[in-house]
Amino acid sequence: xxxxxQHFLLLSSLAxxxxxxxxxxxxxxxxxxxxxxxxxxxxxVTLRVASGNNIYLGEHxxxxxxxxxxxxxxxxxxxxxxxxxxxxxxxxxxxxxxxxNQEFLYWLMKKEGIYRWEKxxxxxxxxxxxx
Length: 131
Hints:
Shape: globular
Strand order of the largest sheet: 4-1-7-8-9
Helix content: 10-25%
Number of helices: 1
Order of helices and strands: HEEEEEEEEE
CATH class: Mainly Beta
Distance between the termini: 71 Å
CATH topology: Immunoglobulin-like
Strand content: over 45%
Radius of gyration: 20 Å
Number of domains: 1
């Protein structure tokens, strides 16, 4: 009987340790901010965000200067797809190892395409495409 109780306590402690590690790992994941910085009076863009692990954050319609934010919840690749007038583009808005140890990820929509904030400058990540 004492052995069963010891095994139960040991397994319970191990399970709590595993849960604690998972929570701490998730706390290090970044928040992504996608900013519509297109020219004034541009029509709204349609943004969709999803991960490869059945996470779909929905469809969002952003006006100029509007920001969409989301918290990365899993260490899986997240993709963004944007449509603007006759243009569209897609890019990985979170992926490892590129985004390891980042607190925030910044993405900027401009007339040339999607820019990523890297260190101290905006870098063109994904130009607009047409059919």
